[in-house]
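Hello K.,

You asked for the raw outputs rather than the summary table, so here they are, unedited. I folded two proteins back to back in the same session to keep the settings identical. This is the first:
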Amino acid sequence: MATALPAGITAGTYDIDPSHSTAAFSVRHAGIAKVRGTIDLTAGTITVGEDVESSGVTAELDAKSVNTGDSGRDQHLTSADFWGAEENPAWSFRSTGVALAGDDITVTGDLTINGISKAVELKGEFTGTAKDPFGNQRAGFEAATEINRKDFGITWNAPLEAGGFLVGETVKITLDVSAIAKTEG
């Protein structure tokens, strides 16, 4: 059975606007605090079908663009110790399914980090549409997921004197996306 689209959005193709979209992450550090950072969302398309189930998403992120507020840490994260951005400069996501329950959207798909693809589930919501001052029809979305970094071959760590390890395994990823409707012609 087809699920109707959320109120306010129409079928069509929407290009993700990198200058108004954010991909952020957080991971536990030394077991007591979180390190937060961003990675540039460089391109993507949201295809809104006539119903929710015929919709889909693709996205690309620049693995070299990590920003945690500490250039030394950023260089370490892009090194072979973590995600080897020289060998694997892009992360990608390609949806395999979309479902809607109330206001909650679930997008399942394949996330590729460090050259390794794994199925993930993004939980999110459609945040509305607006026409910007330049005449563009925009649609907004928010989504989040958690991954285990070891599933993507990111295994570097250092033991702590009191026990445990420096870097947590669970990485929380959040997305705030603004997308622009493609015009025909």
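The second followed immediately with the same parameters:
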Amino acid sequence: MLTDKKKLLFVIGISIILFLFYWFYLAKPNAIPSNDQLIEKMNKFPETSVNNIQDKILLDETHLFVPFISDSNDYGASFWVWQKHKWEVMSIDLKGRPSVWKINKKDFSTYFFVWNIHPEDRVQHLKFYLIKDRGYTMANGIEKYHPKIQMETTISMETTSYGINPLPTEWIHVMDSFTHIKSNKAIEFFINQLFPKHDLYFGWNSYDQFNKNSFPNHLFYGGGYSNGNYNNIDELYYLNESELEFKSSG
């Protein structure tokens, strides 16, 4: 039998545990840090020399995208997450390369394209792609052709160097359908006969004011910082026009 004193200590202990759990994991985020606070925290990492915060964009309550300009006039991107009752920088890309931020890897509606392209590269618009490569196989004398999936969305770069964009709804439907296929072994076996190596992936490319394919040179030779335990941000594959099944007109 517990004495009244032990019961009281037990209740107090449980209350403290519940409070700490709420404080670190469930409490609503505080206000977004000031520009000076963000810069101070980022500049603690090697090679990072942030000079100017361009914007602070919330993707949801606990995920924050912060594009910036460095002392050396590089246009970069930083990725922040509210966890354990504070805003923590999860990744810094000193060159602002187009990436996909997977807020919840199991929910494609929480995926966002993010970027910060140097204005001197004169990019007029970006194009993002959802791709499944075409292919050809032969087995037991039977030839099979596997058509390509290519979906694209165009983003204007006329007003700002940076931005975020969620996946188009049509892409989410396609990705969900492939996920459903993989979760059903019988269907997956059948589909694999028609579409072997049916993995989907993202790509991107860029165009100037004359609608000419033009790679942003400022994206070369830049490092950054990444929290080793956080792998929800993927740099995107740059697609040459020769890798596309068809090219849109604009």
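Residues 18-23, 183-197 have pLDDT under 50 and may be disordered.

Happy to rerun anything if the numbers look odd on your end.

Regards,
P.
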